Amino acid sequence: MGKRGPTPTPTETLKRQGRYRPDRRKNEPEAPVASARKPAWVKGLAAKHWKQIAPLLIDAKLLTVLDTVALGLLCDALAEYLEAGEIVEAAAKDGEVKFVATTDKGNVIQHPVVGVRNKAWERVVKLARQFGMTPSARAGMAIANAADEQRDPLLTLLQERMGRN
């Protein structure tokens, strides 16, 4: 059985929100920021998506060396989703109704590639959430910027008194 409850908030997010407590995050491993070196198995359309997404995640400090496989899988799933969509579109242009196919015996069924596309979409959404690439995933994230460094002195004093960083 897996872990129960919501997934833990990333340490960097907690630090940016002023809610980080070192006593609750003992011996947590830290990974260096990635140099955007894509895995060798990321090829074709997935490699194109890597070149678009990786720099954005590095700039936001959301991509580490340990995350390159997850990003590769995201790019691969995105490429698979788009390729499946193209196959469905091509079938529709060949005279078939979009999203359905006709069997040898004349039965109308869901086009087999539609299932592939739907599964790829699920993988894209799950992995995109892990990187904060959906509006709901970003809602709880705070990216550090210059405005964060000019904090309210009263708030800073109160946080110091309460034992927060």
What is the structural class? mainly alpha
Mean pLDDT: 80
- Strand order, sheet with most strands: 1-2
Distance between the termini: 35 Å
Q: Which sheet architecture does the biggest sheet show?
A: 2 strands, antiparallel
Poorly predicted residue ranges = none
Principal-axis shape equals elongated
Number of strands: 2
| Number of helices, where a helix is a run of at least 4 consecutive DSSP H or I residues | 7
Number of domains: 1
Series of secondary-structure elements, N-terminal to C-terminal: HHHEEHHHH
Explain this structure to me?
With 165 residues, this protein is mainly alpha-helical. The protein has one domain (11-161). Helices cover 52% and strands 4% of the residues. The protein has seven helices and two strands. It has a two-stranded antiparallel sheet. A hairpin with a 5-residue loop joins strand 1 (100-102) and strand 2. The longest helix has 26 residues, at 68-93. The radius of gyration is 22 Å and the shape is elongated. It starts with 10 loop residues before the first helix and ends with a helix.
Give keywords.
165 residues, mainly alpha, two-stranded antiparallel sheet, 7 helices, 52% helix, elongated
Reconstruct the topology from this structure.
Layout: H1 11-17, H2 45-59, H3 68-93, E1 100-102, E2 108-110, H4 112-130, H5 135-139, H6 146-149, H7 153-161
Antiparallel strand pairs: 1-2
